[in-house]
Amino acid sequence: MATILLSIKPEYANKIFDGQKRYEYRKRIPKKEVSKIIVYSSAPEQAVIGEIKMKPTPLWNSTKANAGISRSKYRKYFSGCTTAYAFVIGSFEKYPTSKSLADLNIQSAPQSFVYLDD
Questions:
Q1: Helix (H, G, I), strand (E, B) or coil at 103
Q2: Looking at residue 82, what is its pLDDT?
Q3: What does the DSSP assignment read for 72-101?
Q4: How many C-beta atoms lie closer than 10 Å to residue 36's C-beta?
């Protein structure tokens, strides 16, 4: 099982930790089985703000009630893709104080995700 650092726009990262967003959509998922996601809230926040546990699932119809995004944004995001994935968010913990990427020995924000050592 792997841990990854995942870049998420602040609007959506904050919805995860507010409990409004239970799915994080992705066009690609890691090849390794992921047990934990460390959340990097991208610009303008640019901070590591918490962690989540999840499992992958593919369908809009089973996720739309707690998607945290509109169907039009979902369709725009997956435009041209033949497969859609979502991480099903289980438990989550928002850090009391945000961390920097340097705290995780990461030099720059990942385009999508990066594996971290456990």
A1: helix
A2: 67
A3: HHHHHHTTT-S--EEEEEEEEEEEEEEE-G
A4: 14
Q: Which amino acid is at 66?
A: N
Please give the structure tokens belonging to residue 40.
């990097």
Q: Is the pLDDT of residue 77 over 90?
A: no
pTM of this structure: 0.56
Q: Kindly report the backbone phi and psi dihedral angles of residue 70, in degrees, each rounded to the nearest multiple of 5, phi listed first.
A: -80, 160
- Residue 115: burial class (beta carbons within 10 Å; 0-12, 13-18, 19+): middle
The residue assigned the tokens 């809230």 is 41
Question: Do residues 104 and 116 touch, judged by C-beta distance below 8 A?
Answer: yes
Name the strand (E) or helix (H) holding 41: strand 34-41
Phi, psi of 18, rounded to the nearest 5 degrees: -90, -5
Helix (H, G, I), strand (E, B) or coil at 28: coil
CA distance 19 to 6: 18
